[in-house]
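Hello support,

Our group uses your service weekly, and this is the first time we've seen a run hang past the timeout. The protein is DUF3822 family protein. I'm not sure whether the cause is the sequence or the server load. Input pasted verbatim:
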Amino acid sequence: MNYTSEEFHIHYISSYTLFVNSDYTYDHLVVVDEQKNVLVFMKYKTTKPSTDAMKILSLPFQHVFVTLPHQSLVLTPTDVFQDGEKDIYTDYFIDQDADHTYVKHLSFGITGLYQYDLLLYNRWKNLFSDAHFIPSFEIVVRQAQSNIPIQGETLGVHIYDSQADLFLYIDGALQLYNTFEVQTVDDLNYFVLSIFKNFGLTHKIQRILLSGTNEGSEWGERLSKYTEDLEVIRAKSKWITSDDEVKKQMSYLNILLDSQLCV
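Update from on-call engineer: The timeout came from a worker crash unrelated to the input. Re-ran successfully.
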C-alpha cells in the first residue's frame, strides 16, 4: 500500500512525526502532523522497499518512533531485579552480549529483559540514530492492562508476521509471555491448548484479548471457540484520515498507534 496525502509538504518536515513498525516480513511507515492527521501510510515487504518509501526514509525527521518485535524475552519479578545484574541473564538469550539486552519495567511487579534481532535493529538505528525504539510486547501488555480482571484467567494473543505472542494472566498477575511460529490457525490452536494444559485450564477461558487483527479474522473465529468473551485490543491514540483503506490498515496496527505512549 502506498498512500500520500495532498497535505504532505516537505518544508513542514520538522513538525511531522514518523512512526515505523517493522518485522521480518513487512514494514509500515506512517507520517502524522501535529494534529494527528495521517499524511503518509506505506506498507511494503521488508526486503523490497518501494521508491516512494525510500524517499520518505531519506527525509530528516526529527521525531521518529520505531516499533520492533523482540528476539528474546525474559520476565522476572521487579523486586529481585537489579539494573547492574544483566549479565546473570545472558544464558537465556541468543546473543550473549549484555550490551544488547534492554530492560523494561512493566506493571504488576514484572520486569522484562529483552533483545532485538540485531540486523533488524541496526537497520533502523543506522537510518535514524536518535529514534525511540519500543518493543512491541511492551505496548501490547500496556494496552491489555485495562482489560485484565482481578480474578480469573485472561489469555492474550498478538498476531504479526507469521508469529503469535501469547500471554496469560491469572488473577491479575502475568504468568507467561511466549512467542510462537504460526503459519495457520491450527498452529495457533495447538499452542493455545498447550498453555491451557500446562496451567490446568479447561477448554474455555474467562477472557481472550486479541491484538493485531480483528474478531472476524480466521484467528478471531478460532479463538472464539475457547471463550465467551473475546475482546479486541484497541489503541488509545487516535489518528485522523478520510481514506478508507488507511482506516482499515490502522485497525490492525494498535501497537504502532500507541508506541509513543511508551516513551
